[in-house]
Amino acid sequence: MGRSLLPDERLRRAVHLKNRLIVNLLGEFFGTFVFIFIGLCVSMQYVLGRQALSTFIQVNFGWGLALGFCVYLLTGSSGGHLNPAVSFCFFTLGRLPFHHLVLYTVVQTIGAFLSAFCAYFYYFDQFEKFAGGERSVTGPFATAGAFTSFPDAHVSHVTCFVDQIVGTACLTFFITVFTDKRNKIPSGIVALLVVLFALNLGYPINPARDFGPRLFACLVYGREVFSYSSYYFWIPMVAPFIGGPLGGWLYHIFVGVHIPYDIDDEDRPETAAV
């Protein structure tokens, strides 16, 4: 008499996907959803708790840990990009086809949008208590910052643009360090870097993370989430696509291309990814 299958193995046999692109897209969607949902809940606890339940640095570490755990979650599928700028970096390095890049960006943004929807209703009663039903982007009862980035009045667009380039470049620089198998470093460690670039804007450095929740916030707060600060919203959507490949190529130019392969290195790239 044969051994009966465990429930998870029966499920695997019933719904296991063999198409690697679909597997990767499903992973990027779900991983981004989980990552942003946890991160937004951390931010909402900070905002709705009137900064009494956690500190700014704890919020940063909360986002960093969420990112690290979700990168590990997708180690066996897409690798855990969770960020269109990271996907674009890998595209410029020949590690991701263009049509995969487009699809990754779409599912990452949808995942971020849905995470904002779920986080909002998860803390809906707290939003009601905080401002008595009022939803505002600015002022003493402002809560829109729990969803997406809004610079202080004294922070210029130039500063914001440079901030997003530098922050994203540092992120992808170390992602390429950790994903270069010759270095033999766990890739999830890079998530802790987000705590270093939070003062100016928080740490969008991720077009999906900023735009998806902003789009949902527009349904709650109105068009001001886009018009705020002379239409600042486009900066975290554009600048990371500059910083992403910049960081990856800086690593390879100054370090990566100079590291020798082992004689029997099976990971030696021979052709571009397909």
Q: Would you give an account of this structure?
A:
This protein has one domain: Glycerol uptake facilitator protein. Helix 4 runs parallel beside helix 10 and helix 5 crosses helix 8. It is mostly helical and 274 residues long. The radius of gyration is 20 Å and the shape is globular. Helices cover 60% and strands 0% of the residues. This is Aquaporin. Aquaglyceroporin that may modulate the water content and osmolytes during anhydrobiosis. Belongs to the MIP/aquaporin (TC 1.A.8) family.
CATH class: Mainly Alpha
In N-to-C order, the SSE pattern is HHHHHHHHHH
Kindly name the structural category. Answer: mainly alpha
Report the oligomer.
Answer: single chain
CATH homolog superfamily = Glycerol uptake facilitator protein
Tell me the overall shape.
globular
**Tally of DSSP helical segments:** 10
Note the main sheet.
none
The total strand number stands at 0
CATH fold descriptor = Glycerol uptake facilitator protein
What is the number of independent domains? Answer: 1
User: Poorly predicted ranges (pLDDT <50, ≥5 residues)?
Assistant: none
Radius of gyration: 20 Å
Into which percentage range does the β-strand content fall? under 5%
Share of residues in helices: 55-70%
* Average pLDDT level: 87
CATH architecture descriptor text: Up-down Bundle
Span from first to last CA? Answer: 44 Å
